[in-house]
Amino acid sequence: MSVFEKLLQIKEDKGAVYIVLIDPDKQSIEKSVQLARCAQEEQVDAIFIGGSLLFFTVFDDLIRQIKSAVTIPVIIFPGGAMQISKHASAILFMSIISGRNPETLIGQQVLGAPIIKLLGLEAISTAYMIIESGKMTSTEFMSNTRPIPYDKKDIAVAHALAAQYLGMKLIYLEAGSGAIHPVPDEMITAVTKNVLLPVIVGGGITTPELAEQKVKAGASFIVTGNVLEKDLKPGRMAEFALAIHR
Fold first, then answer.
1. Domain range 3-244, CATH architecture
2. How far apart (Å, rounded) are the C-alpha atoms in residues 29 and 51?
3. What is the 3-state secondary structure of the chain?
4. Among residues 129, 134, 137, 181, which one has the least CA distance to residue 158?
5. pLDDT tens, 107-142?
């Protein structure tokens, strides 16, 4: 069974999938490994690993150490073509379809594709859509793309349909790390009602109650990251897991 199939099975069993994003740009490798261990202990279903500025040698060692510390899937959330490692369970093969920057639409993907094939790494085709969140996020700045306006759910639906017809496997609605406003419920519902693909929602999800709200709106996968870096008390991820696993 592929990693993607395992995630879909978790969704069937639990109602939704809880994923923690670990950004190694924000802490040491040792702390990242500790965070991964805590995630597994507190019923997190999978881990995303990614950041904007890591060098390959550091990234590869990080993935190796985290993968050896946990048994749940460790999936690369790449900030660019240099963030690829044979030690990962899989990689999100993302295209920022909400933008019009050719480098993030196809350029980095062309550079990374031969490496992924050489390593035999499972690639999960993902349509990445940046949603306006009340401030410029790191994702928006680094990708040099404009987000989909917060109140334009029809534009989000059109992009999601395009992703489906292009044969992608996942839709990722991203408000960005430290977002003031998470992806609106109305947009999540509109997208999920119009496409057959599972929808990931991340950015600005600061409480278990808010996470549960996004699941009720239609999200199949919930991603948290920044909130845990600020408030990583024992049981915090378990609170999110309980709210997300309906």
1. Alpha-Beta Barrel (3.20)
2. 13
3. CCHHHHHHHHHHHHCCEEEEEECHHHCCHHHHHHHHHHHHHCCCCEEEECCCCCCHHHHHHHHHHHHHHCCCCEEECCCCCCCCCCCCCEEEEEEECCCCCHHHHHHHHHHHHHHHHHHCCCEEEEEEEEECCCCCCHHHHHHCCCCECCCCHHHHHHHHHHHHHCCCCEEEEECCCCCCCCCCHHHHHHHHHHCCCCEEEECCCCCHHHHHHHHHHCCCEEEECHHHHHCCCCCHHHHHHHHHCC
4. 129
5. 999 999 999 999 999 999 999 999 999 988 888 888
d(CA 225, CA 13): 23
Q: What CA–CA distance (Å, rounded) separates 235 from 46?
A: 17
> What is the spatial distance between Cα 150 and Cα 130, in angstroms, rounded to a whole number?
10
| Residues in the chain where the model's pLDDT stays below 50 | 56
Phi-psi region of 178 (alpha: psi -120 to 50; beta: other; left: phi over 0): left
Give the tens place of pLDDT for each residue, 191-222: 999 999 999 999 999 999 999 999 999 999 99
Residues 213, 218, 224, 226, CA torsion sign: negative
pLDDT of residue 105: 96
Tokens of 55: 């060098």
Phi, psi angle pair for 127, to nearest 5°: -90, 110
Hunting for tokens 């040099």 — which residue is that?
A: 144
